[in-house]
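Work package 3, deliverable 3.1, input record:
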Amino acid sequence: MATPERTVQKYGGTSLGDLDRIRAVAARVKRRWEQGLNVAVVVSAMGGETNRLLALARSLSGEPDARELDVLLSTGEQVSCALLSLALKEQGVPAESLLGHQVRISTDSAHGKARIQSIKVSRIERAFEERKVAVVAGFQGIDSDDNITTLGRGGSDTTAVALAAALGATSCDICTDVDGVYTTDPRTCDQAVRLEKISYDEMLELAGLGAKVLQIRAVECAKRYGVKLRVCSSFGDDEGTWVVPEEEGMEEVLVSGVAFDRDQAKITVKLVPDTPGLAASLFGPLADKGVVVDMIVQNVSADGHTDLTFTVSGEDFSAATNLVQDVAEKVGAGGIDSSDTVAKVSVVGLGMRNHAGVAARMFEVLSDAGINIQMISTSEIKISVVIERDDVDKAVKLLHEAFVEDPGSLAESKPA
Amino acid sequence: MATPERTVQKYGGTSLGDLDRIRAVAARVKRRWEQGLNVAVVVSAMGGETNRLLALARSLSGEPDARELDVLLSTGEQVSCALLSLALKEQGVPAESLLGHQVRISTDSAHGKARIQSIKVSRIERAFEERKVAVVAGFQGIDSDDNITTLGRGGSDTTAVALAAALGATSCDICTDVDGVYTTDPRTCDQAVRLEKISYDEMLELAGLGAKVLQIRAVECAKRYGVKLRVCSSFGDDEGTWVVPEEEGMEEVLVSGVAFDRDQAKITVKLVPDTPGLAASLFGPLADKGVVVDMIVQNVSADGHTDLTFTVSGEDFSAATNLVQDVAEKVGAGGIDSSDTVAKVSVVGLGMRNHAGVAARMFEVLSDAGINIQMISTSEIKISVVIERDDVDKAVKLLHEAFVEDPGSLAESKPA
């Protein structure tokens, strides 16, 4: 008899939000198992559980110890793990829950943001040999000293992908409350359509831009190990969106999606003396405080002075402003300007690698609509602009129309 | 510098019922730690948590798989463990939570009722070397295949005692919501007084009789390894009751306590043919169904037939009656009598070993009060009687008065 194909499915907290949903997930896992596949399921904590536990810890301690927080939070996945195994058995499917220390998902010791170093698959393979479904706790691992670690928010995606790689699974389904990756957010633009497939690189750019269906680290891991990912609904049977290695023909689609992040703030440090080490003295303190800086733009220096603008999330705005104020005085800058009413809009697509017209067309579309561009940043397959928050809906609709719904005019001008 | 003395403290679910109580427990642990002792704390799940988890499992499955149930229930202790460690650190006490698989509390594989086989103390000793408080999850262990096991209800007491033995601790405090072991239940008899100390054997008899301050297995374990146990309040600073090896002078106290169990039922199988194997054919099926039989009384056979009476808990009454009905027919018994309105009252004390007068005096006290004795059972240090439930309060008050408050008359008649 041939060895059965292996697959990994990951279910998020919303999909496991109550006992009825857990039963529904069990039924869904059962269908794959009945098809003859060996299935490893990776689970998150039940919806709301991680926040409940976090609130307990924060009531006891302003800055909860990272090691103990991991011990606490990891119980969330342990509970879902056991409950899903019970639900599977109740439906006649042999199943076994496995925690980080049982599988031996080895990580470094960076509590709260640990990185997976290796996964032993022998225990899961033993379960497979008995035709059991292996129900693996996501988000958690164990360091070399047997301390429990967690991978950070959304870490279960990473667990699933790493496990799929270690098991040589033919696919890894990320089952969630949306049914795939869309060309843009359907709530903002009703012309949004689901993508059948998308490349790892495009998904990485989208994930980094607030299209929060997949963790960046999980996509990076999938890319590194060539794991074929599928984002699909936990409840329906639609095919969803495949996130796959770049294939021939993918570049023919100029722009795969229009992404945006409404919650941005920008800070400009004016007339900074343009000396070596300036950026370090500015961004070092921000990094120390855990402020994530997104876009950074610095103009060419004039008269030994320059303006430097960067964006942070709205949440970090006031902390960042205070820190930058201090630094600005120390380095003798001319002052700072700031705004927390901005947003970022981006177009992403492999096709733009070989096509110079995308940026120009994007600026033209926005300009025609009277939308002012405050910052621009580009990568090989992405162009992002910062605009006023009030303009986001209009910008997304127009860019989606120009690039996704009717990309004709640009395709015609594609170089031979 | 001398190696600090080691002590173990165990806190139950009520003592850890909310965050304020967890803070209070941390403050109490801190006082011991500040005295220079190395402290290992064993914790139960927060009050109500185990039942909440059990209800989730039972909603999914009528008979939840024992292995998965252990994975689920053990999260309760894991949560308290992490929270108490956080509370200790917040109060400036270095602390480290340790779970069953981290300490390596090795058990057999009997899920839900596992027995501890060994405890490695190296990880706890490492914590002690750093002057950390080790906060150990009670109730849970790990089998030889790294499966999580639990020790059964109240198992945290056993964890604490076994840990105290393994660590060579000078004492093991069982901190709970009562402040010690009483001569009888103060709610029933307001003359009840707290015992300063009691022997393991007396405590074993009391624990088995519904005085539920300590698990029998924990007392057995303490006796085997000579661990000095103390039952005390989690909230006050009273000395509580010491449970210790038998000491000189202990026998001078005739009766240490009057225990009772209101929730009993008795079943009599009448005119059974008195043949070998009869008891086995009767009690085998009961054991198979998990019915715990307490007292068994069989009269001397007359004409090859005998009556056999036994007691079970009220909870098991109807199941036991049904089973016994079947067996009675098979063995050709004359029928069965049963009652679920009975109760058991016992007097316990090392002193009665050398004193024949206790039983007689007990029967006299009950008889004078018009209380009918339905069954009698004795051990070396205990006399139990079954009476009507309605008579319990009166019986307990009278026996307490006769043996504990005013034992003079009997002591006088003690043989030289």
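The radius of gyration of chain B is 24 Å.
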